[in-house]
Specification:
10 strands, about 240 residues, Methyltransferase, Cobalt-precorrin-4 Transmethylase, Domain 2, homodimer
Chain lengths: ~240, ~240
């Protein structure tokens, strides 16, 4: 029996129509469609995005990826997920894994693919790029993310204030992903630097319930959800 | 007569199937389809990407954007392009502008949109995000662009060696866009830092003639085309 192929498919940031034509073609042709299982028995983010595209004959398989930092717990989950996917591949099924955002950009798929490759070097994996959150957020804001020779820094987390200060010194545009837990400290730095008026928060970009916050001087405190991003234009390039 | 809408549509990095479902829907519904004119009477990059998607009744309008740095020449070209587009919008036509890569990411569309908005504040502009070159290149390389808490710096040009050194000190992943003109100097810095084996060049990502260069220690000199990108993994995050 010929091995099936595992496809990592970027499904974009929320709007189901932001999947690429290629991603949709491969998604709909796959025998098995997997995605990170939602929490509290709710559907996951990627699962919701693709639900309208699924075909009646397709089998959906949620995979469990815990939201923890413990490396042992994580690796155990990756191995379980890899074992499930491997079984389908061995039976000759093509498996599509739906990734929220872009498959190469801070994606859970990376761990699944790496674990599978380690356990079964003969596995065949292909990925389809897609829309990632910084460019999606810029479109929502109706502004460019970057122009001309602007330098861009993307920080997925911030551990020290100094780190953000260095980024603001170096780049014209800084994007902070998953900013909810550090928003208050970040706000203070932006205030000190006079950057609150050239910063924007986009929560759940391209989702039906997305929110945009500007004039951040009026928002020292924001209760944001996990998928919230802060875009800072350190220097305004003349257009 | 109601004004038409100007749509900035991201068409991805080369593979025509990397346009989003939304982008394709709006592109094919537009009365007028514009794109940056190619050089030397050849079709432009975005034009080639969308050619298979165009409908017989659609009018295509190449717009001239010169590849120069002179601000006066540039502004004059933007104004001419804006005047052409505005005429169609005033006649009630919806106009789609096809952008190579993502419309918010170092795109010519930004200048057209800014010029139009300045001249005609009543203009209605919408953008559709898409696949940008760093994530497309990562997919081509079959590796993640970023994982976990990795910091990402994207440099569209390099003016000083110190600038690249600072970026390499700060981030786990550094991407240099349009690296062709500075490749030799960059190569020397990567050699000094022992990073040649964790650096990759992707030329024309997702195009039919795309090329990948790895083991850069054997490639101190490369003749690269304009759309070449260098991806540097400064620190290998364990997977």
């Amino acid at each position: 029996m010929q091995l099936g192929i595992l496809y990592g498919i970027s499904v974009g940031t929320g709007d189901p129509e932001l999947i690429t034509v290629k991603g949709l073609r491969i998604l709909q042709a796959a025998d098995i469609v997997t995605f990170p299982q939602g929490i509290n028995n709710k559907p996951g983010v990627a699962q919701k995005i693709i639900s309208q595209w699924l075909q009646p004959q397709q089998t959906t398989v949620p995979l469990y990826f815990p939201y923890v930092r413990d490396q042992n717990i994580l690796e155990s989950a990756w191995q379980k997920a890899a074992a499930i996917v491997w079984q389908y591949l061995q039976q000759g099924n093509n498996v599509a894994f739906a990734c929220e955002g872009d498959v190469s950009f801070y994606s859970t798929f990376t761990y699944l693919a790496a674990t599978l490759t380690k356990l079964h070097p003969e596995v065949v994996i292909e990925t389809v790029p897609g829309v990632c959150s910084p460019t999606a957020a810029a479109s929502e804001l109706q502004m460019p993310l970057t122009v001309s020779n602007e330098r861009l820094i993307i920080l997925p987390a911030i551990y020290t204030v100094a780190e953000l200060e260095t980024a603001l010194d170096l780049a014209e545009v800084v994007v902070l992903l998953k900013v909810s837990s550090v928003y208050k400290q970040v706000w203070q730095i932006l205030q000190k630097r006079g950057l609150l008026e050239s910063s924007w928060v986009v929560e759940k970009a391209t989702c039906s319930d997305r929110k945009i916050y500007h004039n951040l001087q009026y928002h020292p405190h924001l209760q944001l959800s996990y998928f919230s991003l802060l875009l800072i234009r350190v220097l305004k390039t003349a257009l």
